[in-house]
User: Which sequence fits this backbone?
């Protein structure tokens, strides 16, 4: 299993960047975790919509779903032209209901996330755990051939995330709050120290900070997370292929 980071900015991207989007590839398919603003411009370099086994939206805020309609346009075209023999599978929270209803299209099969049920996609087992955000949001754990990738979604510090990330090979963890930044009010988010604390308590092998503030001191955030984690911390590199 590997992951390509298509976008990692929180709220809104810097020039030429993209908000949340992570392309996970196994030997049996591909999964897109979140589809924020600018993600489709990166997605097109890496794959095609017909290669997707499905899409997972951690929650229904625009920086995690803004390009979903564009991806659906691509799916409609692929189906119409015979490249895609199946409808686009989309997993998302039930609320806010008006945001979910906007995603219903004839070329999309929507599945409401149930944290009590595991999902199998691209040969992987997928688990969802509710986390602490301003609207319903799920952290996601993907297990494939004994390897584990965990994505925090957007959340404040919570014990449920520590349990989900236990011994993960790669932990994509949000770190939105930074001293001196005016990017966010901070509600439903963490700073780099908290991300590092969760990674350390969960004993993860690699921590990558995501959902970063465009006006943040990213190197300072990396150092703070590393000190709290007790190990090296990566800032996301969109051109890099992360092997899980």
Assistant:
């Amino acid at each position: 299993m590997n992951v390509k980071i298509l976008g990692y900015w929180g709220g809104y991207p810097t020039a030429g960047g993209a908000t949340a989007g992570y392309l996970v590839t196994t030997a049996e398919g591909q999964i897109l975790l979140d589809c924020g603003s600018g993600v489709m411009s990166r997605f097109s370099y890496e794959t095609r919509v017909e290669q997707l086994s499905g899409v997972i939206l951690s929650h229904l805020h625009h920086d995690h779903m803004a390009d979903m309609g564009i991806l659906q346009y691509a799916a409609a075209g692929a189906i119409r032209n015979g490249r895609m023999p199946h409808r686009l599978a989309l997993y998302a929270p039930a609320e806010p209901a008006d945001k979910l209803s906007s995603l219903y299209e004839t070329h999309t099969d929507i599945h409401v996330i149930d944290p009590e049920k595991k999902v199998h996609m691209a040969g992987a087992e997928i688990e969802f755990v509710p986390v602490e955000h301003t609207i319903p949001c799920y952290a996601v754990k993907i297990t494939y051939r004994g390897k584990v990738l965990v994505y925090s979604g957007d959340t404040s510090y919570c014990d449920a995330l520590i349990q989900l990330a236990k011994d993960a090979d790669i932990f994509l963890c949000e770190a939105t709050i930074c001293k001196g930044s005016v990017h966010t009010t901070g509600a439903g988010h963490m700073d780099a120290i908290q991300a590092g604390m969760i990674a350390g308590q969960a004993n993860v092998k690699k921590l990558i900070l995501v959902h970063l503030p465009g006006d943040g001191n990213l190197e300072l955030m990396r150092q703070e997370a590393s000190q709290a984690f007790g190990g090296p911390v990566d800032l996301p590199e969109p051109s890099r292929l992360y092997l899980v």
Q: What stands out?
A: The chain has one domain: 2-243.
